[in-house]
Amino acid sequence: DIQMTQSPSTLSASVGDRVTITCRASQSISRWLAWYQQKPGKAPKLLIYKASSLESGVPSRFSGSGSGTEFTLTISSLQPDDFASYYCQQYNSYPWTFGQGTKVEIK
Amino acid sequence: EAQLVESGGGLVQPGGSLRLSCAASGFTFSSFWMTWVRPAPGKGLEWVANINQDGTEKYYVDSVKGRFTISRDNAKNSLYLQMNSLRAEDTAVYYCARAPSGWYFDLWGRGTLVTVSS
Asked: CB neighbours (10 Å) of residue A72?
């Protein structure tokens, strides 16, 4: 199975900060990577697919980059609605696997 | 508006069975792969199973193979997860989700809670 490792596990930031979350795959997954946002008690929400494609309706302050084994999710200017947990997911080969998550907290 | 609504969760004893349902509306259900996902303690989220548009392709995570069965009824716009031989570690909120090409998940339900305990 492909292991997905996110860093950091927790991130403290202020409104307006630029935030970057890293996701590393245990083997190359080309660009077959998605990013999700999840708030407590809610279902996850798709933000990015194919490493850098922005899902319809997602604000442009979210962006994704990377290929192979290293990927990043960047929030260009953190907004109050962005305090949540973020997960990466690979869909290069079954079983699809997720990272353990990064919680973005208010500093 | 596209929507997924899960049902069927509850409390079940170890070794018991449960059938989850997911009702789809607002989109052409028969055109999409569908999936079940659950949170996994310390591991974030865990993909459980996928099924293609006509139900001829199914994939499972190893931890549920032989115990869980994913199925669908396109006439009823419904997705199912039959869970047998349930274990304490299967306790979770189970989400159904729409999966374009079976890859990532662009529409999620609100989840249904399964608790396996004696």
From this structure: 16
